Amino acid sequence: MGAGTEPDGSSRSDEEWERFLRESAAGVADAPKEPSARAREVAKRLRAEPDRGPESWRGYTPARPKRRTGWYVAGLLASLALLVVAVAPGRIVDLFTGTDSTPSAAETGRPDQAPPAEPAGRPTVDEPFRGSPAARWADGAAGITVPKARAVGWMSAAEVERALARSRDFLVASGLDRGVLRGERPEKAIALINPHQKDVQDLLGTAFRAPGEKNDPLLLFSRFQPSRTRLVGDVVKTRGRLTYREGERGALQVTADVTFVYPVTRADAGGDGGGRDGEIVRTIVRRELVLSWDDPAKVVTEPGTFSIVSYKYDMTNGGCGAPTGYFTPPFGTDRRADGAGPEVDPYDRSAPIRRGEPSRDECGRATRS
Predict the structure, then answer these.
(1) Is the pTM of this model over 0.85?
(2) Domain limits, the chain
(3) Which residues are within 8 A (CB) of 266 and not within 5 positions of it... i.e. 6 or more apart?
Protein backbone atom coordinates (compact mmCIF):
# COMPACT_ATOMS: atom_id res chain seq x y z
CA MET A 1 0.00 0.00 0.00
CA GLY A 2 1.53 3.32 -0.96
CA ALA A 3 1.83 6.16 1.52
CA GLY A 4 -1.20 8.42 1.65
CA THR A 5 -3.46 5.93 -0.12
CA GLU A 6 -6.70 4.47 1.25
CA PRO A 7 -7.63 0.80 0.56
CA ASP A 8 -10.15 1.94 -2.08
CA GLY A 9 -7.52 3.95 -3.89
CA SER A 10 -8.32 7.44 -2.59
CA SER A 11 -5.46 9.74 -1.59
CA ARG A 12 -4.87 12.43 1.03
CA SER A 13 -3.51 15.92 0.34
CA ASP A 14 0.10 16.53 1.41
CA GLU A 15 -0.99 19.00 4.10
CA GLU A 16 -3.46 16.55 5.65
CA TRP A 17 -0.93 13.74 5.58
CA GLU A 18 1.72 15.81 7.35
CA ARG A 19 -0.81 16.89 9.93
CA PHE A 20 -1.91 13.30 10.43
CA LEU A 21 1.60 12.07 11.04
CA ARG A 22 2.39 14.92 13.38
CA GLU A 23 -0.71 14.56 15.51
CA SER A 24 -0.50 10.77 15.54
CA ALA A 25 3.06 10.95 16.79
CA ALA A 26 1.98 13.36 19.51
CA GLY A 27 -0.84 11.03 20.55
CA VAL A 28 -3.66 13.50 19.99
CA ALA A 29 -6.93 11.74 20.81
CA ASP A 30 -9.06 13.36 18.14
CA ALA A 31 -6.55 13.20 15.39
CA PRO A 32 -8.35 13.65 12.10
CA LYS A 33 -9.14 10.69 9.96
CA GLU A 34 -9.14 10.97 6.25
CA PRO A 35 -12.74 10.81 4.90
CA SER A 36 -13.41 7.94 2.55
CA ALA A 37 -13.90 8.49 -1.15
CA ARG A 38 -17.61 7.56 -0.82
CA ALA A 39 -18.12 10.10 1.94
CA ARG A 40 -16.46 12.79 -0.15
CA GLU A 41 -18.70 11.90 -3.14
CA VAL A 42 -21.87 12.16 -1.02
CA ALA A 43 -20.74 15.48 0.42
CA LYS A 44 -20.01 16.79 -3.08
CA ARG A 45 -23.48 15.76 -4.33
CA LEU A 46 -25.25 17.38 -1.37
CA ARG A 47 -23.39 20.64 -1.96
CA ALA A 48 -24.48 20.61 -5.62
CA GLU A 49 -28.21 20.06 -4.89
CA PRO A 50 -30.42 23.02 -3.87
CA ASP A 51 -31.50 23.26 -0.27
CA ARG A 52 -35.05 21.76 -0.07
CA GLY A 53 -35.34 22.02 3.67
CA PRO A 54 -35.72 19.14 6.10
CA GLU A 55 -37.66 16.18 4.81
CA SER A 56 -40.51 14.84 6.90
CA TRP A 57 -40.22 11.42 8.41
CA ARG A 58 -41.90 8.95 6.11
CA GLY A 59 -42.67 11.87 3.83
CA TYR A 60 -43.80 11.25 0.24
CA THR A 61 -43.76 13.53 -2.77
CA PRO A 62 -45.81 12.15 -5.70
CA ALA A 63 -44.33 12.29 -9.15
CA ARG A 64 -45.64 15.12 -11.31
CA PRO A 65 -47.85 13.80 -14.12
CA LYS A 66 -46.85 14.42 -17.67
CA ARG A 67 -48.81 17.23 -19.33
CA ARG A 68 -50.99 16.11 -22.24
CA THR A 69 -51.93 19.42 -23.80
CA GLY A 70 -53.17 17.93 -27.06
CA TRP A 71 -55.77 15.68 -25.43
CA TYR A 72 -56.92 18.52 -23.16
CA VAL A 73 -57.53 20.89 -26.08
CA ALA A 74 -59.32 18.19 -28.09
CA GLY A 75 -61.62 17.43 -25.18
CA LEU A 76 -62.41 21.11 -24.67
CA LEU A 77 -63.30 21.58 -28.34
CA ALA A 78 -65.51 18.49 -28.31
CA SER A 79 -67.37 19.80 -25.25
CA LEU A 80 -67.95 23.17 -26.93
CA ALA A 81 -69.25 21.46 -30.08
CA LEU A 82 -71.75 19.42 -28.06
CA LEU A 83 -72.90 22.59 -26.29
CA VAL A 84 -73.53 24.36 -29.62
CA VAL A 85 -75.53 21.40 -30.95
CA ALA A 86 -77.62 21.29 -27.76
CA VAL A 87 -78.35 25.05 -27.74
CA ALA A 88 -78.86 25.63 -31.48
CA PRO A 89 -79.36 22.35 -33.35
CA GLY A 90 -81.19 24.15 -36.15
CA ARG A 91 -78.14 26.20 -37.02
CA ILE A 92 -76.03 23.04 -37.36
CA VAL A 93 -78.59 21.56 -39.74
CA ASP A 94 -78.59 24.81 -41.71
CA LEU A 95 -74.85 24.51 -42.31
CA PHE A 96 -75.30 21.15 -44.02
CA THR A 97 -78.59 21.83 -45.84
CA GLY A 98 -77.97 25.40 -46.94
CA THR A 99 -81.23 26.57 -45.36
CA ASP A 100 -82.01 29.25 -42.78
CA SER A 101 -84.29 28.14 -39.94
CA THR A 102 -83.89 31.36 -37.93
CA PRO A 103 -87.39 32.35 -36.70
CA SER A 104 -88.82 35.45 -38.38
CA ALA A 105 -89.15 38.50 -36.18
CA ALA A 106 -92.68 39.38 -35.12
CA GLU A 107 -94.60 41.48 -37.63
CA THR A 108 -95.26 44.92 -36.16
CA GLY A 109 -96.18 46.75 -39.40
CA ARG A 110 -96.98 46.07 -43.02
CA PRO A 111 -93.87 44.67 -44.76
CA ASP A 112 -92.59 46.46 -47.86
CA GLN A 113 -91.96 43.29 -49.87
CA ALA A 114 -92.71 39.60 -50.07
CA PRO A 115 -90.52 37.20 -48.08
CA PRO A 116 -87.52 35.84 -50.03
CA ALA A 117 -87.68 32.50 -51.78
CA GLU A 118 -86.74 29.47 -49.72
CA PRO A 119 -84.58 26.59 -50.95
CA ALA A 120 -86.75 24.15 -52.87
CA GLY A 121 -87.97 21.25 -50.79
CA ARG A 122 -90.91 18.90 -50.80
CA PRO A 123 -93.01 18.91 -47.61
CA THR A 124 -92.87 15.78 -45.51
CA VAL A 125 -94.77 14.43 -42.53
CA ASP A 126 -91.95 15.51 -40.20
CA GLU A 127 -91.40 18.83 -42.03
CA PRO A 128 -94.74 19.88 -43.55
CA PHE A 129 -93.56 23.49 -44.02
CA ARG A 130 -90.32 22.59 -45.77
CA GLY A 131 -89.53 24.82 -48.75
CA SER A 132 -91.98 27.49 -47.54
CA PRO A 133 -91.44 30.88 -45.84
CA ALA A 134 -93.86 29.61 -43.21
CA ALA A 135 -91.14 27.28 -41.94
CA ARG A 136 -89.69 30.28 -40.09
CA TRP A 137 -93.04 31.68 -38.94
CA ALA A 138 -94.38 31.26 -35.43
CA ASP A 139 -96.78 28.52 -34.39
CA GLY A 140 -100.45 29.25 -33.84
CA ALA A 141 -101.42 32.26 -31.75
CA ALA A 142 -97.76 33.17 -31.21
CA GLY A 143 -97.62 34.48 -34.78
CA ILE A 144 -100.32 37.14 -34.16
CA THR A 145 -98.71 40.32 -32.83
CA VAL A 146 -100.76 42.27 -30.28
CA PRO A 147 -99.75 45.94 -29.79
CA LYS A 148 -99.39 47.73 -26.47
CA ALA A 149 -102.70 49.05 -25.19
CA ARG A 150 -103.58 52.67 -24.54
CA ALA A 151 -106.87 54.39 -23.73
CA VAL A 152 -109.09 54.89 -26.79
CA GLY A 153 -112.58 56.38 -27.00
CA TRP A 154 -114.79 55.06 -24.24
CA MET A 155 -112.23 52.44 -23.13
CA SER A 156 -109.41 52.74 -20.62
CA ALA A 157 -106.00 51.22 -21.37
CA ALA A 158 -106.91 48.13 -19.31
CA GLU A 159 -110.19 47.71 -21.21
CA VAL A 160 -108.40 48.09 -24.54
CA GLU A 161 -105.93 45.40 -23.47
CA ARG A 162 -108.80 43.00 -22.71
CA ALA A 163 -110.50 43.80 -26.02
CA LEU A 164 -107.28 43.12 -27.94
CA ALA A 165 -106.85 39.79 -26.15
CA ARG A 166 -110.43 38.78 -26.99
CA SER A 167 -109.95 39.85 -30.60
CA ARG A 168 -107.03 37.47 -30.83
CA ASP A 169 -109.13 34.82 -29.06
CA PHE A 170 -111.62 35.10 -31.93
CA LEU A 171 -108.84 34.50 -34.48
CA VAL A 172 -107.71 31.45 -32.54
CA ALA A 173 -111.25 30.09 -32.18
CA SER A 174 -112.10 30.68 -35.85
CA GLY A 175 -108.83 29.74 -37.55
CA LEU A 176 -106.80 27.52 -35.19
CA ASP A 177 -109.23 25.50 -33.06
CA ARG A 178 -108.68 21.82 -33.96
CA GLY A 179 -112.37 20.96 -33.73
CA VAL A 180 -113.37 23.82 -36.02
CA LEU A 181 -110.67 22.84 -38.51
CA ARG A 182 -112.20 19.35 -38.55
CA GLY A 183 -115.59 20.82 -39.50
CA GLU A 184 -117.22 21.40 -36.11
CA ARG A 185 -119.39 24.43 -35.50
CA PRO A 186 -117.25 27.32 -34.13
CA GLU A 187 -119.26 27.96 -30.97
CA LYS A 188 -116.48 29.76 -29.06
CA ALA A 189 -115.90 32.18 -31.92
CA ILE A 190 -119.60 32.83 -32.47
CA ALA A 191 -120.01 33.63 -28.75
CA LEU A 192 -117.72 36.65 -29.18
CA ILE A 193 -119.87 38.21 -31.94
CA ASN A 194 -122.54 40.74 -30.96
CA PRO A 195 -125.80 38.72 -31.04
CA HIS A 196 -127.70 41.91 -31.95
CA GLN A 197 -125.81 42.39 -35.24
CA LYS A 198 -128.54 41.16 -37.60
CA ASP A 199 -126.62 40.83 -40.91
CA VAL A 200 -123.92 38.68 -39.36
CA GLN A 201 -126.40 36.60 -37.40
CA ASP A 202 -128.32 35.93 -40.63
CA LEU A 203 -125.08 34.75 -42.28
CA LEU A 204 -124.33 32.45 -39.37
CA GLY A 205 -127.85 31.07 -39.38
CA THR A 206 -127.61 29.99 -43.01
CA ALA A 207 -123.91 29.29 -43.65
CA PHE A 208 -123.66 25.95 -41.85
CA ARG A 209 -127.00 24.62 -43.16
CA ALA A 210 -126.90 25.78 -46.78
CA PRO A 211 -123.55 27.37 -47.66
CA GLY A 212 -123.59 29.65 -50.69
CA GLU A 213 -121.59 32.45 -52.29
CA LYS A 214 -123.00 35.07 -49.92
CA ASN A 215 -123.42 32.82 -46.91
CA ASP A 216 -120.21 30.81 -46.83
CA PRO A 217 -118.79 29.95 -43.39
CA LEU A 218 -115.31 30.25 -44.93
CA LEU A 219 -115.80 34.00 -44.98
CA LEU A 220 -115.06 33.94 -41.23
CA PHE A 221 -113.94 30.41 -40.31
CA SER A 222 -111.40 27.84 -41.54
CA ARG A 223 -112.91 24.35 -42.00
CA PHE A 224 -111.91 21.12 -43.74
CA GLN A 225 -114.22 18.22 -44.51
CA PRO A 226 -112.95 15.35 -42.33
CA SER A 227 -114.11 12.66 -44.77
CA ARG A 228 -111.89 14.17 -47.46
CA THR A 229 -109.01 16.04 -45.82
CA ARG A 230 -106.99 15.90 -42.64
CA LEU A 231 -104.31 18.09 -41.16
CA VAL A 232 -100.68 16.97 -41.07
CA GLY A 233 -99.14 17.39 -37.64
CA ASP A 234 -100.30 19.60 -34.78
CA VAL A 235 -98.98 22.95 -35.99
CA VAL A 236 -100.57 25.71 -38.07
CA LYS A 237 -98.16 28.49 -38.98
CA THR A 238 -99.34 32.09 -38.70
CA ARG A 239 -98.07 35.57 -39.39
CA GLY A 240 -99.90 38.85 -38.83
CA ARG A 241 -100.84 41.57 -36.42
CA LEU A 242 -103.59 43.54 -34.73
CA THR A 243 -103.87 47.32 -34.99
CA TYR A 244 -106.45 49.63 -33.46
CA ARG A 245 -107.82 53.17 -33.51
CA GLU A 246 -110.93 55.07 -32.43
CA GLY A 247 -113.94 54.24 -34.58
CA GLU A 248 -117.47 55.58 -34.89
CA ARG A 249 -119.20 56.87 -31.77
CA GLY A 250 -116.02 56.46 -29.74
CA ALA A 251 -115.77 52.71 -30.36
CA LEU A 252 -112.49 50.80 -30.28
CA GLN A 253 -111.92 49.60 -33.85
CA VAL A 254 -109.53 46.64 -34.15
CA THR A 255 -108.14 45.46 -37.49
CA ALA A 256 -106.73 41.95 -37.77
CA ASP A 257 -104.57 40.96 -40.77
CA VAL A 258 -103.32 37.38 -40.42
CA THR A 259 -102.13 34.63 -42.77
CA PHE A 260 -102.73 30.98 -41.81
CA VAL A 261 -100.83 28.07 -43.41
CA TYR A 262 -102.50 24.64 -43.11
CA PRO A 263 -100.56 21.50 -44.21
CA VAL A 264 -103.05 18.84 -45.22
CA THR A 265 -103.25 15.45 -46.89
CA ARG A 266 -105.97 13.06 -48.02
CA ALA A 267 -108.23 11.68 -45.31
CA ASP A 268 -107.48 8.15 -46.54
CA ALA A 269 -103.74 8.61 -46.18
CA GLY A 270 -101.79 5.84 -44.48
CA GLY A 271 -100.46 5.98 -40.95
CA ASP A 272 -97.47 8.00 -42.13
CA GLY A 273 -99.80 10.87 -43.04
CA GLY A 274 -98.27 11.24 -46.47
CA GLY A 275 -101.27 10.26 -48.56
CA ARG A 276 -101.44 7.44 -51.05
CA ASP A 277 -98.73 9.10 -53.13
CA GLY A 278 -96.97 10.88 -50.27
CA GLU A 279 -98.58 14.19 -51.24
CA ILE A 280 -98.92 17.05 -48.77
CA VAL A 281 -100.63 20.29 -49.82
CA ARG A 282 -100.50 23.60 -47.98
CA THR A 283 -103.75 25.58 -47.94
CA ILE A 284 -102.91 29.23 -47.33
CA VAL A 285 -105.56 31.67 -46.10
CA ARG A 286 -105.12 35.36 -45.40
CA ARG A 287 -107.89 37.09 -43.46
CA GLU A 288 -108.53 40.76 -42.78
CA LEU A 289 -111.22 41.54 -40.23
CA VAL A 290 -112.35 44.88 -38.82
CA LEU A 291 -114.03 44.57 -35.41
CA SER A 292 -115.84 47.27 -33.46
CA TRP A 293 -115.94 47.18 -29.67
CA ASP A 294 -118.89 49.51 -29.21
CA ASP A 295 -119.89 51.71 -26.30
CA PRO A 296 -122.97 49.97 -24.81
CA ALA A 297 -124.33 53.42 -23.98
CA LYS A 298 -124.52 54.19 -27.72
CA VAL A 299 -124.92 50.82 -29.48
CA VAL A 300 -127.00 47.79 -28.59
CA THR A 301 -124.49 45.10 -27.75
CA GLU A 302 -123.62 42.57 -25.09
CA PRO A 303 -120.64 42.79 -22.71
CA GLY A 304 -117.54 41.07 -24.05
CA THR A 305 -118.75 40.99 -27.67
CA PHE A 306 -117.86 42.97 -30.81
CA SER A 307 -119.59 43.84 -34.07
CA ILE A 308 -118.00 42.87 -37.39
CA VAL A 309 -117.45 45.93 -39.59
CA SER A 310 -115.94 44.08 -42.57
CA TYR A 311 -114.25 40.82 -43.60
CA LYS A 312 -111.98 39.88 -46.48
CA TYR A 313 -109.94 36.80 -47.28
CA ASP A 314 -107.59 35.41 -49.89
CA MET A 315 -107.17 31.66 -50.30
CA THR A 316 -104.89 29.41 -52.35
CA ASN A 317 -104.98 25.63 -52.59
CA GLY A 318 -108.40 25.70 -50.98
CA GLY A 319 -110.52 24.49 -53.87
CA CYS A 320 -112.60 25.94 -56.68
CA GLY A 321 -116.20 25.61 -57.73
CA ALA A 322 -119.43 25.93 -55.80
CA PRO A 323 -119.14 26.59 -52.06
CA THR A 324 -119.38 23.54 -49.82
CA GLY A 325 -118.66 25.19 -46.48
CA TYR A 326 -115.19 23.58 -46.44
CA PHE A 327 -111.80 24.14 -48.00
CA THR A 328 -111.22 21.44 -50.59
CA PRO A 329 -107.47 21.25 -51.28
CA PRO A 330 -106.60 19.76 -54.69
CA PHE A 331 -104.63 16.49 -54.64
CA GLY A 332 -103.01 14.56 -57.45
CA THR A 333 -104.73 15.08 -60.79
CA ASP A 334 -107.10 17.63 -59.23
CA ARG A 335 -104.25 20.07 -59.04
CA ARG A 336 -104.39 22.32 -62.05
CA ALA A 337 -103.26 25.74 -63.17
CA ASP A 338 -106.40 27.86 -63.29
CA GLY A 339 -105.90 30.36 -66.09
CA ALA A 340 -109.03 32.33 -65.19
CA GLY A 341 -107.63 33.76 -61.97
CA PRO A 342 -104.63 36.00 -61.44
CA GLU A 343 -101.29 34.78 -60.21
CA VAL A 344 -100.81 35.37 -56.51
CA ASP A 345 -97.98 34.95 -54.04
CA PRO A 346 -99.84 33.76 -50.93
CA TYR A 347 -96.93 34.77 -48.69
CA ASP A 348 -96.79 38.37 -49.89
CA ARG A 349 -98.25 40.56 -47.15
CA SER A 350 -96.93 43.87 -48.51
CA ALA A 351 -100.30 44.91 -50.01
CA PRO A 352 -103.83 44.83 -48.58
CA ILE A 353 -106.32 42.16 -49.60
CA ARG A 354 -108.02 43.31 -52.80
CA ARG A 355 -111.42 41.65 -52.62
CA GLY A 356 -113.92 40.87 -49.93
CA GLU A 357 -115.78 37.82 -51.18
CA PRO A 358 -113.58 35.69 -53.46
CA SER A 359 -115.33 33.75 -56.18
CA ARG A 360 -114.45 30.05 -56.14
CA ASP A 361 -115.07 30.03 -59.90
CA GLU A 362 -112.02 32.25 -60.41
CA CYS A 363 -109.32 30.73 -58.27
CA GLY A 364 -105.98 32.49 -58.20
CA ARG A 365 -102.91 30.56 -59.26
CA ALA A 366 -100.33 30.38 -56.45
CA THR A 367 -96.78 31.15 -57.52
CA ARG A 368 -95.53 29.12 -54.53
CA SER A 369 -97.02 27.19 -51.67
Answers:
(1) no
(2) 121-334+341-366
(3) 228, 229, 230, 275, 276, 279, 331
